[in-house]
Each structure stands twice: as structure tokens, then as C-alpha cells.
């Protein structure tokens, strides 16, 4: 099969959503200037650099009560900071609940029953029991093709690691099983890993 996205795919569901997978989920927490906390999952999320450590997430929708984007991007524009929390399999239902479309001043932490804690380096809440939380200073918000497509880049300036995920000095993802997005309504979790050595190592 071959299709041009501009001409449509003719299928009951968009196959592009299932091609670039699995995708890690960034559970992005923000706080607006009035002090309202927000928590939302983004599956267009990844690390983009080692030194200094940097991450990105992309927002692709619009809320009626926010000007041309969603709460997360609007809050980051105001404050310049956000926290990227890593989602474990055990938190899948709470993550899903936090994706509900709520009023701008609603607290998704409370809505989804997620315990929050204060970040150390930025004025923002984080998911208290997340396997890892990355406190970020926004470096760029880039508008890309599409009506409401924005990519947010942030430099990681503070890192929280849950103690039970540390094994012999390494962050062990099998201790919490990262939740990842597939296509359609499908998800998966990382339960096993294997090692390969690069030719130049």
C-alpha cells in the first residue's frame, strides 16, 4: 500500500498513528501564573540531547478556553518552566484520566487522583511517585506545520529518581515498566531489555 497523506489513506483509522511506535509518554505538569496546576500526557515526547540534557514534547490540539493551543503550552508560555514526569504501567489509569478535557483552571492531579509534590528548581508541581521527573526550563516553543502544532523544548535542570528504580547505580526501567503509546487506542509496557555494544565502543 502507498498513499499520500494530503490525499487521504482510505482506511477506517489513520495508519500514521501506529507507524512511529512505541512512543514514550511525557506526563507534563505545569502551573499557570495564577497558581493553577495542570497535568497532561503527551505521546509526542522524547529526549533530544545529552549535554546539557534536553527533552521535547509536541502539542497538537486546541481547547476552547485557551488561545490557539492547550493548557500545557499556554502555561509554559507564561512561566517558562515545566516538569516531564515518566509514566509507569501501574499509573496507566491515572494517566488516562488526566487526559480528559477540563476547564483551564481545573486541577488534573485532583481529577485523576494523582499525588503531587513541589519541584526543587522550578515553581511547578510534579507527580510525587513517578519513577522519574525532569524539571525543565523552556528553551524554545516552535510552531510547526498545522493549525495548532507546537513543539516545546526544555533543558533539564533538576532530576528526581525513585529509589526503588535504582539498581547497582543504574536506573532500571524493568523496575517500573514504562508505559508507551502505540497506534489507535493501543499501549504497551517495557518488561524486558537486552544489551548491544556499538562497533566503536
Topology summary:
Elements: H1 16-19, E1 23-24, E2 26-31, E3 37-42, E4 45-49, E5 54-59, H2 71-79, E6 81-86, H3 92-97, H4 108-112, E7 116-118, E8 125-127, E9 132-143, E10 150-161, E11 166-167, E12 170-171, E13 179-181, E14 187-189
Antiparallel strand pairs: 1-13, 2-3, 2-6, 4-5, 5-10, 6-9, 7-8, 9-10, 11-12, 13-14
GO molecular function: FMN binding; oxidoreductase activity, acting on the CH-NH group of donors, NAD or NADP as acceptor
Organism: Sulfitobacter sediminilitoris
Protein name: Flavin reductase family protein
Structure description:
This protein is mainly beta and 201 residues long. The protein has a single domain, classed as Electron Transport, Fmn-binding Protein, Chain A (Pnp Oxidase, Chain A, Roll). It has four helices and 14 strands. The strands form four sheets. It has a seven-stranded antiparallel sheet, with helices on one face. It has a three-stranded antiparallel sheet with strand order 1-13-14, with no helix packed on it. Strands 7-8 form a two-stranded antiparallel sheet. A hairpin with a 6-residue loop joins strand 7 and strand 8. The protein is globular and about 50 Å long. The protein starts with 15 loop residues before the first helix and ends in a 12-residue tail after the last strand. This is Flavin reductase family protein. It holds the Pfam family Flavin_Reduct. GO terms for molecular function: FMN binding; oxidoreductase activity, acting on the CH-NH group of donors, NAD or NADP as acceptor.
Amino acid at each position: 500500500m502507498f498513499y499520500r497523506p494530503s490525499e487521504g489513506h482510505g482506511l477506517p483509522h489513520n495508519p500514521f498513528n501506529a507507524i512511529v511506535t512505541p512512543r514514550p509518554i511525557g506526563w507534563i505538569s505545569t502551573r499557570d501564573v495564577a497558581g493553577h496546576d495542570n497535568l497532561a500526557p503527551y505521546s509526542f515526547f522524547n529526549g533530544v540531547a545529552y549535554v546539557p540534557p534536553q527533552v521535547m514534547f509536541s502539542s497538537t490540539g486546541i481547547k476552547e478556553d485557551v488561545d490557539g493551543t492547550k493548557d500545557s503550552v499556554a502555561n509554559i508560555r507564561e512561566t517558562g518552566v515545566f516538569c516531564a514526569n515518566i509514566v509507569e504501567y501501574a499509573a496507566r489509569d491515572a494517566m488516562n484520566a488526566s487526559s480528559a478535557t477540563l476547564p483551564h483552571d481545573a486541577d488534573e492531579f485532583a481529577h485523576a487522583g494523582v499525588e503531587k509534590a513541589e519541584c526543587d528548581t522550578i515553581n511547578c508541581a510534579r507527580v510525587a511517585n513517578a519513577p522519574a521527573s525532569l524539571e525543565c526550563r523552556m528553551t524554545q516553543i516552535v510552531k510547526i506545520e498545522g493549525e495548532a502544532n507546537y513543539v516545546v523544548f526544555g533543558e533539564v535542570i533538576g532530576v528526581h529518581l525513585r529509589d526503588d528504580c535504582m539498581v547497582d547505580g543504574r536506573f532500571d526501567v524493568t523496575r517500573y515498566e514504562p508505559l508507551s503509546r502505540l497506534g489507535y487506542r493501543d499501549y504497551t509496557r517495557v518488561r524486558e531489555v537486552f544489551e548491544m555494544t556499538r562497533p566503536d565502543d
